[in-house]
């Protein structure tokens, strides 16, 4: 009974560490107006800031996945969060845009351990009847970090300058590292098992991995687009003031956190399996992005409702998706399977923000970016529904 209760402690600390480590990066979108003004950035350069934090995880997630199948998550995740804290603290005294890019590269290296490590730790403590709910709660840490960041970082940047936001991010990441290393324990009946190269290669041929990769790439592109363009769209197209636009962005992140929990919990009970929830999210995002390309989205009220809809489904998809990925993997290779899926996602996470920013700069508007995301999700919905 004591062990059964402790799984909720594990869930709480994994969620907190996720939110704390993602705090600064998730706040970049909310600070878009401040950063563009203070550092004189284009939308493309702003997108590159988000990409910089995601570049090293392209390889780091695979390395982290292998380490997690061999060593205790407690130290792998904790040390990664410490790297995030140290990098942000150092970045607070470094000048200019280029130094910020370098800092975010190092932040991404540290964060590589946190996504698969936290997911694996929760999957190990919860059985299938509650795993979707638990994974959804844990994955809600990312948008919750975004909510807190969007609420605090723009005000900090206004009062003390953009460098102060890195100090806040460093303190948040440090608290997450301390919490995870202090409270995390392995389930008493589980020990790490070495993975073999043969199993790792075979994962790429599995139909479930193809579904995971295709849907993941599409939906992280949507998440990136919502993150980097929402505040700018509301400010420039609907003539909303900066404070109100950031408030809507907070609501979008809240909707995303709610979506991750609700959609994952729903997948625990749906007879069609967890991937059915991902298909619903793909369909909902296709509808939302299509409506953003129409004149109705120029209305502030309509635009707010559409972005909240996209927050719920375009961020909430990750709850059932990661539960599906964890359960589909071979039992002793969960860490590598999650790392592999997330590493492939990183390609889209890296390319989407600057690509969407460049498309917006070149076209002088947001419609091409929304249309591209709508087409991408529609194609993925059709393709993966058949697998």
Write the layout of secondary structure elements.
Layout: H1 2-26, H2 32-39, H3 43-55, H4 57-68, H5 73-91, H6 96-111, H7 114-125, H8 128-139, H9 141-160, H10 163-183, H11 197-203, H12 207-236, H13 242-269, H14 275-292, H15 300-316, H16 318-328, H17 334-363, H18 367-385
Count of distinct strands: 0
End-to-end separation in angstroms reads 41 Å
Which structural class is indicated by helix and strand composition? mainly alpha
Order of helices and strands: HHHHHHHHHHHHHHHHHH
- Whole-angstrom Rg: 19 Å
Molecular structure report:
This protein has 387 residues and is mostly helical. 82% of the residues lie in helices and 0% in strands.
Summarize the structure.
This protein has 18 helices and no strands. It is mostly helical and about 375 residues long.
Key words describing this protein structure:
mainly alpha; single chain; globular; 387 residues
């Amino acid at each position: 009974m004591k062990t059964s209760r402790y799984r909720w402690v594990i869930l709480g600390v994994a969620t907190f560490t996720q939110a704390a480590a993602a705090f600064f990066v998730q706040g970049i979108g909310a600070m878009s107006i401040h950063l563009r003004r203070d550092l004189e950035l284009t939308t493309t350069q702003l997108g590159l800031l988000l990409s910089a934090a995601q570049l090293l995880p392209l390889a780091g997630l695979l390395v982290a996945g292998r380490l997690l199948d061999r060593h205790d998550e407690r130290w792998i995740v904790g040390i990664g969060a410490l790297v995030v804290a140290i990098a942000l603290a150092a970045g607070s005294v470094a000048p200019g845009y280029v130094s910020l890019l370098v800092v975010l590269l190092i932040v991404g290296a540290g964060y590589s351990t946190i996504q698969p490590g936290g997911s694996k730790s929760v999957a190990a403590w919860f059985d299938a009847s509650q795993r979707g709910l638990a994974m959804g709660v844990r994955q809600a840490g990312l948008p919750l970090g975004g909510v807190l960041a969007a609420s605090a970082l723009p005000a900090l940047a206004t009062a003390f300058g953009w460098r102060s936001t890195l100090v806040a991010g460093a303190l948040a990441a440090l608290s997450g590292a301390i919490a995870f290393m202090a409270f995390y324990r392995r389930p008493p009946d589980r020990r790490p098992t070495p993975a073999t190269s043969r199993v790792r290669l075979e994962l790429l041929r599995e139909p479930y991995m193809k579904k995971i990769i295709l849907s993941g790439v599409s939906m992280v592109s949507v998440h990136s687009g919502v993150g980097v363009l929402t505040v700018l769209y509301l400010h420039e197209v609907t003539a909303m003031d900066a404070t109100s636009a950031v408030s809507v962005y907070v609501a979008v992140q809240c909707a995303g956190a709610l979506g991750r929990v609700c959609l994952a919990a729903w997948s625990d009970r749906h007879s069609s399996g967890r991937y059915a929830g991902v298909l619903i999210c793909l369909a909902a995002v296709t509808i939302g992005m299509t409506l953003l390309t129409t004149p109705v989205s120029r209305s502030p009220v309509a635009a707010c409702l559409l972005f909240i809809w996209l927050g719920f489904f375009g961020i909430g998809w990750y709850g059932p998706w990661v539960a599906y990925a964890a359960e589909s993997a071979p039992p002793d290779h969960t860490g590598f399977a999650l790392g592999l899926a997330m590493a492939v996602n990183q390609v889209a996470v890296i390319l989407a923000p600057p690509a969407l920013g460049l498309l917006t700069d070149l076209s002088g508007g947001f419609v091409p970016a929304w249309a591209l995301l709508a087409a991408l999700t529609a194609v993925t919905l059709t393709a993966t529904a058949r697998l």
